[in-house]
Amino acid sequence: MIFWLIIPFLISLIIGIPISFSLGVAIVVFMIATAKLPFEVFVQTLYNPTESFPMMAIPFFILAGELMSRSGITDRLINFAKFFMGRFRGGLAHVTVVSGAGFAGLSGSAVAETAALGKTLGPAMKKEGYKKSFTAALIASAGVMAPVIPPSVIMILYGAQMNVSIGAMFMAGIVPGLVIAALLMIVSYVVAVKNNYPTSKMPFTWKGFFDVTLAASLAFVMPIIIVIGIRGGIFTPTEGGAVAAAYAFLVGGLIYRSLTVKDIFDSLIRTGTISAVILLVVAMSAPFGWIMAYFGIPQAFADSILSITESPIIILLLMILLLMFIGMFLEGAAIVMLLGPVLAPVAIAIGMDPVHFAIVMVVAIAIGMATPPVGVNLFVTVPILGTSMEKASKAVLPFIITLFVALLIIAFIPEIVLWLPNMFR
Fold first, then answer.
1. pLDDT digits over 186-219, tens only?
2. Of 43, 3, 81, 46, whose CA–CA distance to 279 is shortest?
3. All structural domains of the chain with their residue ranges
4. Is the Cβ–Cβ distance between 305 and 180 less than 8 Å?
5. pTM to 2 decimals?
C-alpha cells in the first residue's frame, strides 16, 4: 500500500510540482486509493506541527538575517575577511570561504547564503581573473556552511521534530562548520597556486586592523549571544530568535543607521514569504510521515538496514550516501521531516549520540545541495556567474570530495561535534 504514497510523490516531483504540493498530492492519492484512513487524520496532522512553539523561531531568525543583510553588515564582513585573508595566494577565494562562515551565522539558509556570496563576491572574483566556473563552484560549496553554523533553520526543524536540544545542536555545529571552512580554504589555495590567482596588495596597518575588526565585531556578537543564551538556559530557541531579530534591528537601525523604512518593510515581506514556504513543507510532511509511521515504514527500514550488516561504519556510510543523494533533489526541511524519524532510530541502534547524528544529517543534506548534477546551490550560482552547469559541475568536484572528507571526519570522530556541547552541559 505504501507505493500509493511514494509513487504519486515521485511523479509529482518529476513533473515539477513544488515539494509541499507533491506531498499533498501523494497523501490524497493514498487516502483515496487505499481507503484506510479518514481525511480527518490528514487535517489534524497537517495542523499539529505548525502550532509547535519552537517553530516560531524560524521566522524570527529569517527576519534577523534579512535585517543584518540589508544593514550593510555583509560588506563589513567581507572587508574583515579581505584584510586578513587577501594576502594569501588566491586571496579572494579565501575571503569567500571566511565570508561564507560569517554569513552562515546570519542567514541559516544555504540558498540565501549562496545567492548573497554570488552577488557580492562573484563580480569581484571575475574582475580579478578567477575562472567563472571555479568561482561558481567555490561559492556553491561555501553555501554548505549555512545550515551547519548556527543559527540554522534545519537544526530548529530537526530539534522540534525529533525532540533533540536545539541549543546543543547549535553548539555542536560550530566546530564542524570551521572544519569545513578550513578544508575548503586548503583546496582553494591549491587551485589558486595551480592557476596563479592573484593576491591582495593591501598593506597591513594596525589602524586598518582595528578598523575592520571594530566594524565587523557586532556581526560576530549575534551568533555568540544566541548560542550561549540558548545553551545556557537564558532563553528558549524561539525567544532566541526574537532576541536575534531585535539585535539586528538595533544594530542596523540605531547603531549603523543604515536600515530604512523600506528595508524593514521588504525584510518583513520576504520573511513572511520564506517562512510560509518552509512551514507549508513542514505541514505537508507531517501527515506524510505520520502515514509512514502508522504502517511501520521507519521500523521496517531500520530493520532492513540492520539486517544487511552489523557494522556501524557501513550502516553510517549508507545513511550518509542516502542523505547526500536525497539532498540533491529535495529541500532540507522536507528531508528532515521525512527521513529524520526513519534514520534516527537506526543511528541510535548503532550507538550514536542523537546530537551527533543530527549534525551528520545536517551536513550530509547540505553537501547534497552543492552536488552535481542537480545541486540547488549550483543552480543559484551558475546564472549569477554567467557560466554553464557543465563547467561548474566539473569545477565543483574537488570541493565535493573535500566536503565528503569533512563529513567523514565529523561522522567518525564524535568528539569534534560533542566536546563543545558537553563543555556547556
1. 999 999 888 888 776 667 777 888 888 888 888 7
2. 46
3. 37-423
4. no
5. 0.81
